[in-house]
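Newbie here. two chains, one complex. Structure please?
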Amino acid sequence: MFLDQFASGTTKDSVIRLFFIIAGLIFFSLVTLYSISDDPLSFNSSFYRQCIFLIFSSIVFFVVKNIPIKIIHDNSTLIFIGTLILCIIPFFLPRVEYTYRWIDLGFFYIQPSEYLKCATVVVVAKYLSNHQLEVKDNSIIIIPCLLTLLSASIVLNQPDLGTAVIIFAPLLPMLLWAGVSNFTIFLMIAPIITILAASNIIFFTVWAFIMFCFFLTFQASVVNKTILYFANIFTGLLTPFLWNNLADYQKQRILTFLNPDLDPMGSAYHIIQSITAIGSGGLFGKGWGAGSQTQLKFLPVQESDFILSVIAEEFGFFGISCVMLLCFLLIKTLLDIAFRSSDYFASLVIVGLASILLSHIFINSAMTIGLMPVKGLPIPFISAGGSFLLSCFIMIGLVINFSKN
Amino acid sequence: MLKIENKADIFHYRALLFILCFSLFSLLGRYFYLQVIDFERHFSKSQVNSVKALTTYAPRGLILDRHGEILVDNYPTYILTVTPHDLEDRDIEFEKLSSIIDIDIEELNRRYKKYYRGRFLPTTIAKNLTFQQISQIEEMRLEFPGVQYERSDERIYSPILNDAHFLGYLREVDRDAVPKLDKTLLYRAGELIGWQGIEKEYEKELRFSKGVDYIEVDTYGREIFRLRDNNIPAFPGKDLSLTIDANLQRFSRSILEGKKGSVLVSNVDTGEILSMVSSPSYDLSVYRGTTSENEWNDLLKNKDNPLLNRSIAGLYPAGSKLKLITVIDLIANSLVDPSDSLMCTGVYIPPGSTNEFRCWQEEGHGLVDLNKAIAQSCNIYFYETVQLISLKDWTDTAKKFGFNEPTNVDLPNEKDGLIPDKDFYVKNYGRWGWSERGVLLNLTLGQGDILITPIQALRFINHIASRGVTPQLRLNLSKEISYYEKIEYPEKIWDHIWDGMYDVVNADLGSGWRARLDSSDIKLFGKTSTAENPHGEPHAWFIGFFDAQDTTYSIVVMVENGGGGGAVASPIAGDIVEYYINSSKFLAEN
C-alpha cells in the first residue's frame, strides 16, 4: 500500500519532518495574522502576541521534550488529578465572558481544559498499558470510558461543549490501537448510531440490517449477540417515543445543550460570511492582505476560529490545499512515530494526541465551511491564542520526547 | 517503569490512516466545491457584501394654494438611527446620547423597540435634532459605534394658514404597519407617511422617491470608499396645488372663530373647493414629535372635538333645505300647481291624529303658494303637500342628489350620512312602530333620522346651481373634471326652485335676507335651515349660490348649535361672499 511508504525511514527522519511541517503551519499562521492585523507591530496586534506566545511555547516545548518519560508515566494519575482541579478552580472565580473556562493570571488568561485533554490521554494510556494482558476482555473499556466521562463532564459544565467533544475524540482510536476487539469497539459505536438513525424509519431499517450483518460476523456467543442486537433495536424504537414524550421546554433544553451557541441569527451570520470569504477566494485567492471579506471585517473572529477562511480567501484553494497537506502530513507523521514506537504506553499517548489534533483540524475546518455548528474550536498551530498554542507545543513536546524510545 | 512492547497492528494503523484521509479529503472536496465550482456566486456576493447601499432622501412635495402660495413647506432636521448589531453597549451609548439630545433613556429604549427592524438595519430613535446636537455626536464619534444620523425633512406649516383638517399630517410608520402599505413606495419603520387629509390622499404624488448611494464599508459601517457609478438619485415629491384660495380660507376661518361649524365655498362650474373650514381647529405642530402625552390627551378629550373635520365627517340633521326635495317631487309628479295656495294657520293636525304640528311662525304665514313656502320656509305648506308623495319617491330623490353616499371629494375618511328609507325604519322601529305619513312629516323638514355632512349640502347646492350637470368636488387643482351622475328634470322645476331660493334672500320676508350683499349687484340664491337636534340649540345652516363674472359659485355655512339659519348662518354667508367678490385676487383672476 503506497501510503505505508511514508512510514519508511527511521523515527529520526519523522521527527525532523515533524519540525518542518510545524514550521510550515506556523509560517501560514504568521503570514495570515500579519495580513489581518491593522498594525502588526503594535503590542496589541494578534501577530505580535502570537510571536511572543511562540517564543514562550518553544521554551516550554524544550522543557517537556526533556522530561524523562518514566516521570510522566509514573505521575500520570497525579498530573490528571492536578489538571482536573485546575479545571474546577474557575467555578470559584468570577466568570470570564459568561463562562468558567479561564483563570485570569493578570497578563494572560489560562484555559486549563486545554491541558486536561493531554492529561486524559496520558492517564488512559497508562491504564491501558498497565492492563495490556486483559485487553481482549470487554471490561477493559470501563475505566477509560469513566475517566473520559469525568473530564468531559467537568468541561461541559464550564460550559464548553467543543472541548468536551475533543476530550472524547482520542478514546476510540486509543482503544483500537490498544487492541481492544473490534466487537467491543462496534458495541461502543452502535448505540450512538442507533439513536441518531431512529429519527428516520428508512435509515433505521438500513442500519438494523447492517448491524445484523456485523453481529453475524463477530465471534461471540449467540445468546450475547442476540441480546445485544435487540437491545440496540429497542433503544432505537424507544428513542422517538421518549423524545415525543418530552415537554417542549425539555426538548429545547436538550437542543440547547447540544448546541449552546444556538443563536440562529448570530451563528448563521458568521457561517454565511465565512462561506462567502472562502468561496470568493477562488483557485489562487485574492492575494495577501487583499481579501475584502477579511479586511473589511465582515469575517468574524478571523484571528482564531475563522483563520482558515482568511487563508482560503487570500490564498485560494491552492493555499487551503497546502494547509490540508501539512495537516495530513502532521497526523500521518505522528501515526508513523506511534506505529514504530517500541513502547506501548508512548505509542498510545502519541495516537491519542494525534486524534486530538485531527479532531481540532476537522471540526474547525468543517465549521468554517458550514458543515458543523460554530463551536469555537481553534485549528492547531494556525489559530492565534496562547493557551491553545502552548498545549499544542506540549503535545508535540510529548510526542518527540516519547519517540526517543 | 515496566517496559511493555508495542504491538501495534498494521490493520489499526491503516484504519486510522483511512479515517485521516477520509476526513481531510472530504473537507478538501467541500473547499474545492466552494472555491472552484461555486466561485462565481461567492465572488459576486463578496463584492456586494462590502458595498453598503445607503438610502438617500429628497424633500416631500410642497402643498400650495390655487395662487401658488405655499401652505405646507419643508425644513431640514436630522434623525438619529442605530444599527443594533453594531452597538457595543446599548445602555451606555443610550445614556450618553440621552444627555446630548435631551430625551429620556426609557423613551429611547421604547422607540428602539418600536422601530426595530433587524440586527443589521438602522432603527430610528430620535428626530428633529439640531445641527449643534449632531456636531456634538460627531465629535464623540468613536464612543458611538452603531449610531448614525441622516438628514430628514420635517413639515412646516404656513403661520397664517394652519388648517389641520384638510391638509392632514404625517405620522411615523410603525413596524407592524409596514407590510400593509404600498410596497412600491418602500416604506420602512420610522419614516413619515401622510396619515390624514391631503397628505394621505396624495401620498403617492407628494412622497419623494428614495435614492441609493453605494459606499464601500467595513462591518463597523465606516465608509472606506464612495462608489459613484451606480448611484440612484433621490427625487423630490411633486408639488401639489390645491383649489383652496388661501385668503378666502383665512377669512372664512376668522369668521368662524369661537364657533363650532363648517364653511365650504366652491366653484360650481369646475367643482373646485375654494374654502373648506372646520372649526374649532388645532395647531398642526402637535404632530412634530415634541408633543407631550398631556397635550395629546387634551386634544382627544376636548368636548368640542377639534380633531374632527366637520366639513366631511360631521353628521348633522339637514333642516329645511330638504324641503326642496319635496318641491321637486311635487312638481315632477304634477301633484300641486305651484300657483295654488294653502292656508297656514301656524298649526297642522294630520288626518286621523290628535298631534299638533306647528309652523316655526306661530301666528302662521296666511296664504302660501310654492314660492312663498320656499322663501319663508313655511312648514305647514310642506306638511300638507308631502302627504301626496310616497316615502320611496322622496328618499329616491334625496339619494339622487347625493345624500346617503360620500361625495368622493379627494379626502380620506368622508362619512356617508343617512337618508332613512323603508328598510331602515322597519329595522329600527319594527314593522308597526312607524307610519309612512308620520315619518314624511319629519323628513320633509330634514329632521328625524336624517344625517348629512356639510360637503353633502355643498354637493346638493351645486346640483341645483348647475341644474343637474355637476362636476365632482375636488381639492386638487390639476385633477381633471369629472361629473356626478346627471340629474334630469324639466327646466321649469329648476326655475321654480331658483325662484324660491332667490326670494329666500331677496324677497321682503325671505328667511335669508341677512345674506344680501350691500356692496354689489350680485344676487345670492339661498336656503336657510334651522336643524333641531337633541344636543342643544338648533344647528344654523345656509346654502346658496351666485353668479359672478360668468362663473357660478356656491357656499355652505353650518354653525353647530348656532341657532336660526336665517339669523346666524345667513349673515356669515353674506360676509364671506362679499369678501370674496371684492378680494383683489378674485378681481384679478376674472
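Moderator note: Chain B touches chain A through 46 residues (CB under 8 Å). Chain B has a mean pLDDT of 85. Thread marked as resolved.
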